[in-house]
Amino acid sequence: MTDIIPIILSGGTGSRLWPVSRAFHPKPFIRLADGQSLLQKAYQRAVGLPGVETLFIVTNRELLFKTKDECCLINEPKQEPPAMRFILEPFRRNTAAAIASASLHASEVYGDQAMLLILTADHLITDLVAFYAAIVKAVALAQLGKLVTFGIEPNTPETGYGYIEADGHCVKRFIEKPSLEKARAYLEAGHFFWNSGMFCFTAATILREMEEHCPAILDTTRHCLTHSSVAESKDFSLLELDAKHFEAVPEQAIDYAVMEHSKNVSVVPCKIGWHDIGSWTALSKLTPQDHNHNRIDGEVLLHDTKGCFIRSERRLVSTIGLKDLVIVDTSDVLFVADKERASEVKHLFNKLKQSGHESYKLHSTVYRPWGTYTVLEEGKGFKIKRIEVKPGASLSLQMHHHRNEHWIVVHGMAKVINGQQELLISENQSTYIPSGHRHRLENPGVLKLIIIEVQSGEYLGEDDIIRFEDGYGRA
Predict the structure, then answer these.
(1) Which CATH superfamily is domain 365-469 in?
(2) Does the model's pTM come out above 0.85?
(3) Is the pLDDT higher at 443 or at 69?
(4) Are 58 and 12 in contact (CB under 8 A)?
(5) Measured between alpha carbons, how far is 384 from 405 in angstroms, rounded to an integer?
(6) CATH 2.60.120.10 region(s) of the chain?
(7) Which of 183, 299, 334, 474 counts the most CB atoms within 10 A of its CB?
């Protein structure tokens, strides 16, 4: 098979699966029952293809290091991982812009005939043998100059997906989400397929089609790339899209921008165990149900409870006399909804975003390039954090105007800059950092470093940080 360059589109706003999914922890990072995230499964599918030497991931700038860590966690130790090329968007402009930037970059680096496979980071595919067989068929069509999409053979009259009507491999039309009556008719007809949002084509083909059907998207994206920065290393590269010029790119899905207008689209019908995890109802179906039709993920105690989906991350959830509810308990948010209305969670997400509430954006545990921090408790004038620093990693050299910090090492060894001092602090030792002091925390060892940070002051917001030096480009 021709060498393929997989391009994984990874991002999202986090609204439909809130409170587990958040703006800075969107759906691709949700972990399933086996402990792997949807992003990790997408990465494994991509690198499992024969001959894959390069992998593109299009994601948000804020998610770079978390995305990289997720992929590195599942690399086989004896297997050379593919070179990774990240395209970093400053904000979302939908799939047409993402595909345009990836295709232009791939064409520049690997040539017009580069074979591109567009995948999404938030879908689940359980039959990899059938999936890889479908890709072989798609590549053969793409070599003929076709835009190829993957049509999922429906097994239910689904009203939540778009459909593709086909005549053999020829796409006759794309159809918006239908009514239940039409969905039943499509299922019976046998030549209608769910639109998976996955594609295969050469760089030359997609760029030619975009030039014809959405020239404004292609031209503004091309202009943006000429003003964007590229950083290269041996097995890792970054194309960081310039925010000012990217803002000029029209926001549109690739289906509306190209696929629905082109006369050059082919479909590969397939049955690959495909799931679009787009709602709590869809996610709950991945969990087996008990004799009362409850689906349980976590520690739960039930009495006279039927037809519920209950997910608990940390603590025991107990119920009596409930029916047909979705209950999701995270460390900082409890979400309860009627199962039939659980998709309306996006309205809560938007209200939180409009009000500036942190829970639309972050969990109590926040991922940073150097590790994580978890807010354990906070109140007027104080905040307590658990900070974990990866081996060899360090925080920025920084200063706070409004808060004092007390660091206590509970595991590992810390190298600390505190004003004019440079200290090595071991377990059960501590240091006090007054406001106005430049300071830095580093893990010089091979074990993880864990500290408890106690903040005090009149203002404890995360924006009270002045960075002087930073290894992650944030200074």
Answers:
(1) Jelly Rolls (2.60.120.10)
(2) yes
(3) 443
(4) no
(5) 10
(6) 365-469
(7) 183
